Amino acid sequence: MGEKDIQPIYLNFSAQTDSKRTQQSIQEKLEKVSRKKLGAPIGKKNAIFVDDINMPTKEFYGAQPPIELLRFFLDKKGLYERADWEWKDVENTTIIAAAAPPVGGRSPLTMRFSQHFNMFCVPEASDGILENIFGTMLDGFLKAYNFAEGVQNLSSAAVKGTIDIYNKIAKELRPTPSKFHYMFNLRDMSKVV
Fold first, then answer.
1. Each residue of 93-110: pLDDT tens digit?
2. Helix (H, G, I), strand (E, B) or coil at 101
3. Exposed, middle or buried: residue 29 (CB in 10 Å: 0-12, 13-18, 19+)?
4. How far apart (Å, rounded) are the C-alpha atoms in residues 132 and 90?
């Protein structure tokens, strides 16, 4: 199977994500194969990519309804139509997910759900790796737009300074229930660089 044989379905979870909207987002992209089957177009496969899968807020009993819906989908290979409760088999569809460590607003994933996945843990990048990545990006930008040589020589110092500030902010401004928005990641740093 090549890249052209896969039809992606992107879902971005947040604390407000609910199971109804999750199911709608998936079913909108699935094609009707037969009266009781949904799936990918002929000759293709669906890949549902769920970003921040451990973000949905836990309900009163501790469950996360969007995740439970996906677990049910993986266990039974299908979904119930919400309008008439008719069962629909789903074929040629898989789920790929990304999660961050369970801190701040994120919750740990249950074993009942995570058993369906092969997990890869990617360690945080060291300062040296970040300097290499962002330094290369900034150097390329400064050269592409013909900045003066004096400005281009400041690239390394600008990247090192930005990484130092990022590390300090991420360490000292931790998320709390009243300041849950204090969650910093490398996207924030890339906006500066």
1. 999 999 988 877 788 999
2. coil
3. middle
4. 44
- How sure is the predictor about 169, in pLDDT bands with cuts at 50, 70 and 90? confident
- How far apart (Å, rounded) are the C-alpha atoms in residues 168 and 170? 6
Which fold would CATH assign to domain 3-114?
Answer: Rossmann fold (3.40.50)
Domain range summary for the chain, segments of one domain joined by +: 3-114, 127-192
What six digits make up the tokens of 154? 């400041």
Distances (CA, A) of 77 to 53, 80, 104: 19, 11, 32
At position 189, the amino acid (one-letter code) is M
The four Cα atoms 115, 119, 124, 130 give a dihedral, to 10 degrees, of -140
What is the spatial order of strands in the sheet that 37-39 belongs to? Answer: 31-34, 37-39, 87-91, 78-80
> Do residues 102 and 121 touch, judged by C-beta distance below 8 A?
no
